[in-house]
Design a protein that fits this description.
Structural class: alpha+beta
Number of strands: 18
Strand order of the largest sheet: 6-10-11-18-17-16-15-14
Strand content: 15-25%
Number of domains: 2
Distance between the termini: 34 Å
Radius of gyration: 29 Å
Length: 505
Amino acid sequence: MASTENTENQENQQDSPHRLIESRLEKMEELGKSVELYPYSFDRTHTSVQAREAEKELLESEAKVRFPGRIMTKRGTGKTIFVPISDEWGTLQAYFRKDDLGVERFDLIKRLIDIGDWIGVEGKLFLTRTGELTVHVENFTFLSKAIRPLPEKFHDMSLENKSRNRHLDLAMNVESRERFKKRSAMVSAIRAFYAEEEFLEVETPVLQPLYGGATARPFKTHHNALDMTLYMRIADELYLKRLIVGGLERVYEIAKDFRNEGMDRTHNPEFTMLECYAAYWDYEDMMNHTERLIRKLATQFGDEGKLTYGELEMDFNQPFARIRFMDALQEKTGQDLMKLDDSQVADLAKNKGITLKKGMGRDKILDELFSELVEPELIQPTFVMDHPKELSPLAKSHRTAEGLVERFELFVAGFELANSFSELNDPREQRRRFLAQKALIDAGDDEAQPIDEDFLQAMEQGMPPTGGMGMGIDRLIMLLTDSNNIRDVLLFPHMRPLSPQEAQK
């Protein structure tokens, strides 16, 4: 006689998905005559990890355990069936024997329980001949019927299919579950770091009457009761700075931001940002702060402060490199771009193969040049400092270099992790910068920042010298978990809708 496992595998190979669903529905009808299909709860005594940790004690005491989980396989013939059952932390094997359960109860397990179903078992633990810790089942409770069968080889499926079906990815792939557990632990570690540095965690509005704090195209909505247009925030910067004005000297937020932009391996329209602001700091203070944060995370989650990302190896134990934005561009182009006018900068970009879009100002062109020529080579942790003023409408003018601002970006493994300023706190200069951004909007740049009068009024109440920093949490998690695509670290990334034909496959 073929084993239960082999029989089900043959059915999966030979039958269509629709036929398998029909078969499970038929089993569900029959099963419902004998057991409650969807009970309200189950009193668990041990998780799989707890059972293994207490293995010696449980074996010696012969204490009963109650363990729930999902059935992943079935194997056995005749009067015995072995069923590995998985919970969030691992797998514990269950042993069903006809002589213990009786003909009718054993028949339910043999004929009507499928891979993917949820079940709770009760019994004493023992070790099989191969040393496998196993529950000798004296009783069981059916917990949920899986009408749709689990895929046989989900771990081999594409990133797109995993992203569209995260529930299946988590059910079938232990490494995916571990990655998202690590993400939670890493965010907790960030919060612990900010508590040590005496920052106050705060919350600011997601729906805003005016977007700002970054150069990006926003998502737009309408509030019916107030009859007003609102925007999903693209950054929480301008609200956090209001808190500095109000006298909260160190604040941070881990926030969901939304930008109506393209998608690639490091961009998703909905993403998680860390932003922090400290009164009386400048960008040098914030640079040291950021280095402490990243080094702590690399030490806690890496190999003694070293990380591997794909084929790249990064060492966070050494002081992070520091280079100047325009110096790096001059090294790659052979020209001092500060001395070139706008048309010459545009011609240089075209000669480097960069496509210029309508409305692109000098700021966007410089940014594109840097992204194309410099960023890919920034593998070891590197602070890129002192950007052109037109790139940074919220940063303070550099105290010694004309035309530059006090700003840094942190790059690791060829992509940006953090962005920071000595924050502009002169409301008159801020208004001039906003007016320059408005001119870009009028010229067709739909990512430039509009004038925010409420923020300007807050600044006019007096804002102390301040250092600010924003960091992409998703990209940081990519780095710490050696994930090549942002969708690997987002539980539910945004996806292109499937066509009706694709959805039927």
